[in-house]
Amino acid sequence: MPTSLSMAVGTLDYTPVAPPWPSLWMGGYGAVPRGNQGDVARRLRAHCVALNDGVSTKVLLRVDVVGVPRDLHQAIRDQVLGMISNSADFMMVSSHTHSGPFIGDISPDPYILMGLQPADIDAINGSTQIFMDDLVGLVQSTLAQDLTPVTLGYAEGNVQIGYNRAELPTVLTDVPVLLARNASTNAPLAVLFGYNCHPVARGYDETFDSDYAGFAAEAISAALGVPALFLQGTAGDQDPLTPHQPQQVVSLGQQLADTVLNLVSHGGFTAVTGPISTQLTEINLPLAVDLGNPAAVVQLRDKFRQRLDTLPPDDYAYRHASVMLDQIAGNGLTQTFPMPIQLWKLGGLNLFGLAHEVLSEYHVKLKALAAGPMWIAAYANEVCGYVAGDATIWAGGTKHFGYEAGWTDDVTIGGDGTWPMFYGFPVPFKASPNGVTPPAPNTVERVIVDTCAALLHG
Predict the structure, then answer these.
(1) CA 241, CA 198: separation in Å to the nearest integer?
(2) CA–CA separation, 62 vs 348, rounded Å?
(3) Spatial separation of the C-alpha atoms in residues 133 and 75, rounded to whole Å
(4) Averaged pLDDT of the chain
(5) Which of 266, 261, 301, 280 lies closest to 91 in space, CA to CA?
(6) What is the dihedral angle through the alpha carbons of 29, 35, 37, 40, rounded to the nearest 10 degrees?
(7) One-character DSSP codes across 232-272
(8) Is 253 exposed, middle or buried (0-12, 13-18, 19+ CB in 10 A)?
(9) What is the per-residue pLDDT across 48-57, written as a single tens digit (0 to 9) for each?
(10) Residues near 98 by Cβ (< 8 Å), separated by ≥ 6?
């Protein structure tokens, strides 16, 4: 039986300024230090939606940032749990803009990524504390608002403003839109929209910018007079069309905004109702190497030592090898890679929240699990690495220099310039034996798809 819904929306401009932020180091590109000097193209924002279905209030928090590391996600979640009744009722999504602040000191690792020294990393942690306090404060203030009865409608548009940088055939064009209207006046109250593409249209510079997603949100908000909230999708292998430069932010952002606005004006929205059931689980992704096997760790140690012997100390691969060797000599390498997976089931819409930088192949595979509208958000809750499927991992260094696969010429060690190196992880994920379909048990693709299927159908 459908239940009535009510909503409140909070907005925060958190664009960093020094002071009070002790660090203006930026996140999103590696190899060399990059810091903001005060230039801002578009404001960096966070939004919070409090959605009540008559049973409990669900909280969706989204923020213009490259990603939230695991320890920060857990700290934020712990504080939000003091305000709501159930952990599964809280979901946080990052836009993944590469023109925002560097947050946290573990994923990615600022020493490996940019060679930052302890004083700089301490400053980053000081800024991270401000960032966390601001987000928790936004949730608190949103929950304190009066709720407005709403009706929800869902529709999907299409636009192509990106391509598959890993040379796979999947190019995602879906534009999911959830429109909230005041139940009494039918006037728009908020628009949630999404796309699947890295926000790197601006390119590499030292200017804060919410990128194409932020431009689109501002354009939609200006046209409708209500908050517009962007949720990033499975963008791990999707890049915006070139050239990557400031003008491209406007061009691609306007195309995305026009697609959303056209839907709002002319699209056929289907009703989305309550009650809302929420589920949150956490799985451990299988690794290509058993890091609990002492012999395998010795072999890995020798490979990292060889890197130290052949690389200059100012090379990020040297820094990565030194950090891995320190871990092996100390408390040991982390043997697990957790992945939170979340599902909100509304009447007429399933909303997935997948942690990490998930590739587009999962969008296709999850969409095939059930009929009916499904919105798949990635970069949800925490971002600690890239999550590819079998096809990408098999390709290794032959596709996009192995960046998303995590290896180049040796699948048992994180490849030079690939994601495990920048995220401070030693090895890539485990794939099925080459060419084996469907995915074999205890492989990353099989574990993720099976978990999502169980949430959908359980």
Answers:
(1) 10
(2) 22
(3) 10
(4) 97
(5) 280
(6) 30
(7) E-S-TTEEEPSP-SHHHHHHHHHHHHHHHHHHHHH--PEEE
(8) buried
(9) 999 999 999 9
(10) 26, 27, 28, 29, 66, 198, 199, 200, 202, 211
